Write the structure tokens for this entry.
Amino acid sequence: MPNLSDRVGTFTDSVIRRMTRICNKYNAINLSQGFPDWEPPKEMLDALAKAAHAGPHQYAITFGAKNLRDAICEKQSKAIGRTLDPEKEIVVTCGSTEAMMASMMTVCNPGDKVLVFSPFYENYGADAILSGAQPIYVPLVPPEYNFDISIIENGFKSGAKAIVICNPSNPCGKVFTEKELTEIGNLAVKYNAYIITDEVYEHILFDDNKHVYASGLPGLFDNVITCNSLSKTYSITGWRLGYVIGPEKVIDAARKVHDFLTVGAASPLQEAAVTGLKFGKEYYDELKEKYTSKRNRMLEGFDKIGLKHNVPAGTYFVMVDIQEFLDLPQFKNFTDLEFCEWLVKNVGVAAVPGSSFFRENINNLIRFHFARSDETIDEAVRRLGKLKELVK
Ligand code: GLN
């Protein structure tokens, strides 16, 4: 057979989504791929039903239906503290996955360096490869997931074109502070580089943590390319609606990339999503409360059964330390992936091995998500509680 491209040989399929397939095969509880198991808001479903009959059913404007761009810009202008121009500063994409890919392709020439925090959401590695960029990893060091700003400065000094920041951060739950973002921002301006953010968990924050929009920090708008999505905020991961916000010059180019990648996001879904974007503050307060209660439920459960974990400041993920199991004879030489496969088959709970997020040789952390009903969280904790007995 004729050869395939070299590039497809340089990355694997998504381990997150592979774990979902394994999970389904064993009928286990899926705490691997993060998506909610509840319905989207009823108002949005009603709007979708209406759109099913009244349309639109043909292509929307390639860079996003006007009413959706208007609604996103209205909501995000308030959040960011700057009036966004829906005609020039936004492109609607097929999820934040396309938003990130389109942003990388817009910014990077083959061979350009891009700074990526490690652990990182696994798409960024493949995005970098597909856009020809070369990732330089900046460790976020567990358990606090702090970073050394001098590594970032050295990266920019060596010519890095951009830095990717997932904030709040998947998988480690870190929420970047204003001070951290300002420091990174100052360096991006000094070295004439872009900050590409992934802010899909902007509304899933705990305790007193606040989401700081990098694009809203003084003097940074021209250097920041914001990728975002409606998936997590409105529990519509299957609708595949995302967007990029940025300065006109960037968006102008990103719209071209997007146009040839996908033409556009599904038009009836764009229409229905407008309803969600008009929700008031109570909706976002309730979302935060809901996830706070689920986080606490899972962490209390883990504490009861003696699993060691971090305390996420944002996102719906928690990292669990499995070192005590890996130290046992029956798991000798197990990788974290093998441990997760064992867990699905023998305990009936799916997690994602940390090695699919860490660049460093870290094998003892696995990621669970808690976007699940309380009953499912309780059942997962009950099953995991048997783990220690099973391996005795
Ligand atoms: N962002 C979610 C996760 O990290 C879902 C990933 C995906 O499959 N798109 O689990």
